[in-house]
Amino acid sequence: MSEKKQKLTEISELGEFGLIDHITKDIKIKHSSTLKGVGDDAAVIDHGKTCSVVTTDLLVEGIHFNLIYMPLKHLGYKAVVVNLSDVYAMNATPKQITVSIAISGKFAVEHVEQIYEGIKLACDTYNVDLIGGDTSSSFTGLAISVTAIGEAKKEEIAYRNTAKPNDIVCVTGNLGSAYMGLQLLEREKEIFSSNPSAQPSLEGYDYILQRQLKPEARKDIIEFFATNKIKPTSMIDISDGLSSEVLHICNKSNVGCKIFQDKIPIDGETSQMAEEFKIEPLIAALNGGEDYELLFTIDMNDLDKVKDHELIHPIGHIADKKHGAVLITTAGQSIPLQAQGWNQMKSK
Ligand code: ADP
Ligand code: MG
Q1: What pLDDT, on the 0 to 100 scale, is given for residue 347?
Q2: How many angstroms separate the alpha carbon of residue 108 from the centre of ligand 1?
Q3: Ligand 1 pocket, 15 CB below 6 A?
Q4: Distance from the Cα of residue 320 to its chain's centroid
Q5: Residues 317, 302: contact at Cβ < 8 Å?
Q6: Is 38 in the pocket of ligand 1 (CB under 6 A)?
Q7: Within this chain, do residues 329 and 239 fall inside the same structural domain, yes or no?
């Protein structure tokens, strides 16, 4: 590299999303079959009768997972599920995956077998075929990259950029639990490393631990949409915290929104753990990560079709862009939503 005198830009100046924008902004699509390139949960390829959606996620040891508390089987399962979540976020059905792994010298065949037990279990649970991949050695640790391919009819596909004013904003399940599970695991790791004979106290927190270690993707909700002929006007999966994903929908759709604090679903175990950590449960829901729930908007006239579903929670509505994307607190204050999320590359 000729770096003489040229001032280099720190990646932290751009952050993850800034870097992606920077490296992809001049890409020109060459094929009319490329319906959607960079910028959504998955790319969309038009084959005439049906479309394929394609998405990739890379998990790196020490960044996305810690093998001190992450069982290898769970890791394999999670690596698949996080990709399927992006396929469902397009309102598509996942059909195939490829898996690439880089393995360092500390791993034995039996370890890789355990990862693949998890991968195969996810394939069976979600009815997808493992059709290939790549295998490499690594100096520094384990990395797993999964690519998922899904199928949908063109008119069924839900994008991030098609929300419109007055649409109802909904989330599935509950938020912040995987983040609180991670906090608990990190705390017990500290205790364990300072006193190896100490037993981790994880009892009573099965739900938040499961949400962190063995998350599920929202296959059920996509099936519910299909059965009830519901088409979300926009959709994204929640991997980086509610704030960040709401802002993706608002920015891409050129709209604002009002989200009501008292409507945001937070599980009891999550609140309890947040209290122990002196964290506002709301902060875990807004800025925690890895919920793998769906955030979607629907036309006001479709609200009746979803409002009785126990897992679907209306949390606000889309507004004109000039109103901004705001959270209305229980006290009635209006606060601009901020994307903090998992922007791991950004300084501060
Ligand atoms: P998600 O959180 O849904 O997985 P990301 O935030 O990882 O989405 O990615 C946002 C968009 O940027 C996606 O369309 C993704 O395909 C694209 N993208 C991410 N990294 C790269 C890269 N290195 N080169 C090209 N496109 C990328
Ligand atoms: Mg996504």
Answers
A1: 44
A2: 32
A3: no
A4: 26
A5: no
A6: yes
A7: yes
Q: Reading across the β-sheet that carries 34-36, which strands appear in turn?
A: 34-36, 43-46, 51-60, 143-152, 93-103, 129-137
Counting residues of the chain whose pLDDT is more than 90, the rounded percentage is 88
Ligand 1 centre distance from Cα of residue 320 (Å): 27
Residue in the block written with tokens 């009891």: 268
- Are 185 and 257 members of one domain? yes
In a shared domain, residues 142 and 106? yes
The more confidently predicted of residues 218 and 196 is 218
pLDDT of residue 195: 74
Q: Classify residue 204: in a domain, yes or no.
A: yes
Domain that holds residue 54: 14-24+31-156
Whether 4 maps to a domain, the answer reads: no
Do the strands 312-319 and 334-336 form a parallel or antiparallel pair, or are they unpaired? unpaired
DSSP H or E stretch at residue 295: strand 293-298
- Mean pLDDT over residues 83-96, rounded? 98
Grade residue 202 by pLDDT with cuts at 50, 70 and 90. Answer: confident
Q: What is the mean pLDDT of residues 112-137?
A: 98
CA pair distance 54, 306, nearest whole angstrom:
28
Backbone angles phi, psi at 83, to 5 degrees: -80, -40
**pTM (predicted TM-score):** 0.95
For residue 136, the cross-strand partners are 102
Residue 43 and residue 109 in one domain: yes
Give the total number of structural domains in the chain: 2
